[in-house]
Design goal:
Layout lengths: L1 H18 L3 E4 L2 E5 L10 E5 L11 H11 L7 E5 L5 H8 L4 E6 L2 H13 L6 E5 L11 H4 L9 E7 L2 H6 L1 H6 L1 E13 L3 H8 L3 E9 L2 E8 L9 H8 L1
Helix pairs in contact: 2-3
Bound molecules: S-adenosylmethionine.
């Protein structure tokens, strides 16, 4: 009996392994299953243990987000990956030069997988994953605090959220609050017909939208507006108060 179980385990493991191969995402960017060797050691190679959490590189939205990250200068930047799944986007950002990254997810297994994948890539010291509730009413995931965000509560240079339209709409204020003025927000996980609704929810906080598409799936990059109230000239202020 024990031998039968052992053979079944081996077959199952082998069938998982057969279904994942190194995936070239773009020039110089690969996702490599943990049991394979990178073909190009000079590329950004993201090593993943696939199968536990979403984010193996085979979904168009993951690839769109990775390409959006490639187009940024991430040197020294702080990154929040909301809906981190396998941690693939946070790990990619760190490998592209980000200083620190924080991942959050509603799924405890994903949080664990992301932390393990970061460790596989030698990035455990610069990545922290925390579980969140997933609703705008729920408590803050405290991700910013847990990750030692560089400035006031939740101020990150780059926010990535590859989640569905529903949570993107519900969490729009929270996601925008996490970004520094001038920071970059990458959103994906929605279809082209949903883009006008997403745009409406985000355009008071974001500008300079860049849109990319793979089939029906869309990713957008936007820059957080500087919505600080204009400084009031003290002499005008006294006139107003008079
Ligand atoms: C499409 S997967 C993206 C995974 C990975 N970031 C990628 O790009 O491949 C979405 C992830 O977001 C998580 N998720 C879904 N709704 C969420 C919410 N409201 N708050 C936080 N995470 C959420 C899911 O558990 C899942 O791991």
């Amino acid at each position: 009996m024990r031998q039968v179980e052992h053979i079944q385990d081996q077959e199952w493991l082998q069938s998982i392994r057969d279904s994942y191969q190194p995936a070239r995402i773009d020039e110089g960017l690969w996702i490599i299953p943990s049991w394979c060797q990178p073909e190009d050691s000079s590329a950004v190679n993201i090593i993943l243990e696939p199968g536990i959490a979403f984010g193996t590189g085979d979904h168009p939205t993951t690839r769109l987000c990775l390409k959006a990250l490639l187009s940024l200068d991430l040197s020294g930047k702080s990154v929040m990956d909301y809906g981190t799944g396998s941690g693939v986007l946070a790990i990619a950002a760190l490998k592209m030069g980000a200083a620190m990254a924080c991942g959050t997810d509603t799924d405890q297994l994903a949080v664990r997988a992301a932390a393990q994948n970061a460790a596989l890539n030698g990035l455990a010291g610069r990545f922290q994953a925390v579980q969140c509730e997933g609703s705008a009413e729920g408590p803050e995931p405290l991700a910013a605090l847990a990750c030692g965000a560089p400035s006031q509560s939740g101020a990150f240079d780059v926010i990535i959220a590859n989640i569905l339209q529903g949570p993107l709409l519900e969490l729009s204020s929270r996601l925008c609050d996490y970004a520094n003025s001038g920071g970059t927000i990458i959103l994906s996980g929605f279809l082209d017909e949903q883009w006008p609704t997403i745009r409406e929810a985000y355009e008071h906080e974001l500008e300079n939208f860049q849109v990319s598409q793979d089939g029906q799936w869309v990713a957008i990059t936007g820059i957080k507006r500087d919505n600080q109230p204009l400084a009031v000239n003290p002499s005008l202020q006294s006139n107003v108060n008079a």
